[in-house]
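Reminder to self: tokens first, then the designed residues, so the page reads top to bottom the way the pipeline ran.
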């Protein structure tokens, strides 16, 4: 199930306003997935500060929290140019479509069998990270082409000045 991501440490930031749920998620993911390292935040504001000071591969966020909600969090990251994978992990099914339409890389509904839920969360995390990494790889050649094309007028101008002797 884990493929090439099994070879490196996956840094996860889990944001939820329920400390007991954060502790349970952290314990399960770190026990079942040896390469997962989970940090937790109890608010979006705390999560934003942690993202400024730490390197994470993925954010797993609840939707309904005091202050900013999970979709506000996603919007904030996008506006600041972050290309981190973002997973909505919520008990509210009605926000799933909106989250995906706004650019979330995945979602999981809270509830049901705990073992199954966390096993699925691990899979959704890995899938989200792979999706973001694939997007970065696809964007790199496009950035390089853009850089080359922007330098073409300068190169043409330089060659024209060299080719035409001054009179």
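Designed residues (167 positions):
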């Amino acid at each position: 199930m884990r493929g090439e991501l099994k070879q490196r440490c996956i840094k996860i930031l889990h944001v939820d306003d329920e400390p007991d749920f954060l502790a349970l998620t952290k314990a399960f993911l770190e026990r079942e997935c040896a390469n997962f390292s989970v940090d937790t935040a109890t608010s979006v504001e705390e999560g934003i500060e942690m993202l400024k000071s730490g390197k994470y591969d993925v954010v797993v966020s609840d939707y309904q929290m005091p202050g900013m909600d999970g979709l506000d969090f996603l919007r904030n990251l996008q506006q600041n140019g972050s290309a981190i994978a973002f997973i909505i992990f919520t008990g509210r099914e009605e926000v799933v479509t909106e989250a995906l339409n706004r650019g979330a890389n995945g979602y999981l509904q809270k509830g049901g069998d705990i073992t199954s839920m966390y096993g699925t969360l691990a899979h959704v995390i890995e899938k989200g990270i792979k999706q973001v990494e694939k997007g970065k790889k696809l964007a790199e050649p496009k950035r390089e082409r853009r850089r080359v094309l922007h330098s073409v007028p300068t190169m043409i101008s330089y060659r024209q000045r060299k080719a035409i002797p001054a009179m």
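The longest strand covers residues 10-15.
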